[in-house]
Design a protein that fits this description.
single chain, alpha/beta, 32% helix, disordered N terminus, 19% strand, 493 residues
Length: 493
C-alpha cells in the first residue's frame, strides 16, 4: 500500500512522488547571498531500524551542504542537530537518530568539507578559497540558521503543514550553535538542548595556548603521572560534599593546591618543581603579565582524561585550536607559519575581539526566547577537559542577573553533572534524556525540577543520581545506598 500525503489543497500524492516533487520547488532564504540548490530528493526504504523517509540533499551558497530527512511516519515535530569540533561534515548519525523517533530532521556541514579543508583552513582566504570570510560566518552561526529556515520550508512543502514544534539538540560545538540560534534567531526553535557549549570559543582556544605553553619542556606532565594526580585531587575533595562517592559535586569548593598536596621528586610517584609550576598555571587560569585572569582554569575532576585532550605537545595544542587561532581568530591572521609558542597573553587577546563578536554567543538578553515561550535546558560535565564549563555558568548567571532569577528559571535552566567529562562519559551520572525534558517543558508546561541521571557500564545502570537545576546540588539524605537517586534530594549549596 502506497503511503499518501494529503496536501493543503486536497491533492493526494504518494510519498515517493511528493519527495521527488521537492526537486522542482524553489526555496528562498531571507539572508542575503544564501541561494539554495536542491541536488537530490528521493525516498529511502526502511532499512534495519531506520524507517522509510524522504532524503533531501543540497547546498546553500557558497558551500554549506545540508541533509533533510522526512520520515513517512511523522510525529509532526522538527529536530535539528548540531556539529562537533570545527564541523565540516553533516551529523548524519544524529539525524538518523531523530528520524527513528519520528522527527523530521536536518543538519549542515556549516559551509566546508573537513576532508578537504581540515581544522580552520576553510577560513583562510587564498586564491583557491576566496569565500573564506563568508565560510567563517557560516561556521559561526549563519549556515545553521539558513538550514533551519530551509528545513522548515521543506517540511511544510512535503507534509502540507508546518511542524507543530521545532527543537535544537547539540553538544560541544552543537551547544554553541544552539545558543547562537537562541540569541540571534529566537524564532527558529521552541526548545533547545544545549550541551557543553563553547560559549566563549575564543577564550577556550586562548586557554589551549596557555596550557600548551605551561607544559613546554621539563614542565610537561606525563600521562603516567595522571593517576597519581587524580588520586590526590579526589583524596582532598571527594568528601567535601558530605559523601565519599568518587565525585566532586562542585569543584569550586575544592582547595587542592599542587605545590602543597602533591609529592615532590625524591619519592615515587613524584612531580618536579617545574611540573608543579605548570600545574599551578593550568588550574589557576589564563593570566596576563599583570596577573589579571583572562579565562578560568581547569576544574578539578577531569584529570583522568587529560592525556586525551590536554597534556603533551600534540594534544595540548590540538592542531585544531592552533589552526583556529592563526587562521581565523587573530586579527590580522598571522597565517600557517604561526605557532602557539608565539601567542602573547598581553598583546594578543585584544586581537581576537572581532572573531569573538562572531563566534562567542554571550549576549545575556534572551527576552525574545522567553516572550515566544521557548525553553532552554543547558548542561555541562564538571569534569569536562575539552570545553571548560565555567563560562557556561558565568553566562547563565549573566542572564539571571539581567532578567531576574525567577524570570530566568521560567524558561532557562542549567544542569551541572558531577564527574561527567565532555558531553558524556566519566564516573558521573550523565546518561539523561535531555530532549524529553525540554519537550515536556515546551509542550506540557512541566518544568524540570530535577532530572535523574544514570551511570551506565556495559549496558547496565550501576548508579542513579538526581541532577539539579543550578545552583542546587544533590544532597545525600543520610541513609540508603549512595548509588540510588531516591536517597538524594536537590538542595541549595
Amino acid at each position: 500500500m502506497r503511503k499518501l500525503l494529503w496536501l493543503a489543497g486536497g491533492l493526494a500524492l504518494s510519498a515517493g512522488d511528493n519527495c521527488a516533487a521537492l526537486l522542482s520547488k524553489k526555496f528562498k532564504l531571507r539572508e542575503p547571498n544564501s541561494a539554495v540548490t536542491i541536488h537530490s530528493a528521493a525516498m529511502t526504504p526502511a532499512q534495519g531500524n531506520l524507517p522509510a523517509h524522504c532524503d533531501v540533499r543540497g547546498v546553500i551558497w557558497p558551500e554549506a551542504k545540508f541533509a533533510i530527512k522526512l520520515p513517512a511516519e511523522w510525529n509532526e515535530r522538527f529536530q535539528m542537530v548540531g556539529n562537533g569540533g570545527t564541523a565540516g561534515n553533516i551529523s548524519m548519525g544524529a539525524v538518523d537518530g531523530a528520524v527513528r523517533k519520528g522527527f523530521a530532521s536536518a543538519s549542515t556541514d556549516t559551509g566546508h568539507d573537513v576532508a578537504k579543508e581540515p581544522v580552520a583552513t576553510f577560513a583562510w582566504v587564498t586564491p583557491e578559497n576566496p569565500h573564506g570570510k563568508r565560510k567563517l560566518i557560516d561556521f559561526a552561526y549563519l549556515s545553521v540558521h539558513n538550514t533551519a529556515a530551509l528545513a522548515k520550508q521543506v517540511v511544510k512543502a512535503y507534509y502540507g503543514k508546518p511542524a507543530r514544534y521545532s527543537y535544537w539538540v547539540g553538544c560541544s560545538t552543537g551547544g554553541r550553535q544552539g545558543m547562537q540560534e537562541a540569541q540571534r534567531y529566537p524564532e527558529d526553535f521552541d526548545g533547545y538542548v544545549i550541551g557543553a557549549p563553547g560559549l566563549y570559543l575564543t577564550g577556550n582556544v586562548t586557554r589551549r595556548m596557555w596550557v600548551a605553553q605551561s607544559q613546554m619542556g621539563e614542565a610537561g606532565i606525563q600521562p603516567d603521572q595522571l593517576p597519581a594526580l587524580a588520586e590526590a585531587v579526589m583524596a582532598k575533595c571527594d568528601a567535601i560534599d558530605g559523601v565519599k562517592d568518587g565525585l566532586i559535586d562542585d569543584p569550586r569548593k575544592c582547595q587542592f593546591d599542587p605545590k602543597r598536596d602533591l609529592p615532590r621528586c625524591g619519592t615515587a610517584p613524584c612531580f618536579t618543581e617545574k611540573q608543579l609550576d605548570g600545574l599551578s598555571k593550568i588550574y589557576g587560569g589564563v593570566r596576563n603579565s599583570k596577573g589579571e585572569l583572562l579565562f578560568p582554569g581547569e576544574p578539578f575532576s577531569g584529570e583522568p582524561v587529560w592525556a586525551e585532550n590536554l597534556i603533551g605537545p600534540s594534544k595540548v595544542v590540538l592542531p585544531r585550536s592552533e589552526s583556529q587561532m592563526k587562521l581565523a581568530m587573530l586579527d590580522p591572521p598571522p597565517g600557517p607559519s604561526w605557532s602557539y609558542t608565539m601567542f602573547n597573553f598581553d598583546t594578543d587577546p585584544p586581537r581576537v575581539a572581532k572573531a569573538a563578536a562572531m563566534l562567542n554567543p554571550r549576549n545575556p538578553d534572551l527576552s525574545k526566547v522567553k516572550k515566544r515561550g521557548g525553553k532552554i535546558v543547558q548542561y555541562s560535565g564538571w569534569g569536562d577537559q575539552q570545553v571548560n564549563p565555567f563560562p557556561g555558568i558565568e553566562y547563565y548567571e549573566a542572564v539571571a542577573g539581567r532578567m531576574g532569577q525567577n524570570a530566568t528559571r521560567d524558561f532557562y535552566r542549567l544542569f551541572m553533572v558531577p564527574g561527567m567529562y565532555h558531553c558524556s562519559g566519566g564516573p558521573g551520572c550523565g546518561s539523561v534524556d535531555w530532549l524529553a525534558a525540554v519537550m515536556d517543558w515546551v509542550e506540557k508546561g512541566i518544568a524540570p525540577e530535577q532530572l535523574i541521571g544514570a551511570h551506565v557500564e556495559g549496558g547496565k545502570t550501576t548508579r542513579t543520581r538526581p541532577l539539579c537545576p543550578y545552583p542546587q546540588v544533590a544532597k545525600y539524605k543520610g541513609s540508603g545506598s549512595i548509588d540510588d537517586a531516591a536517597n538524594f534530594a536537590c538542595a541549595a549549596t
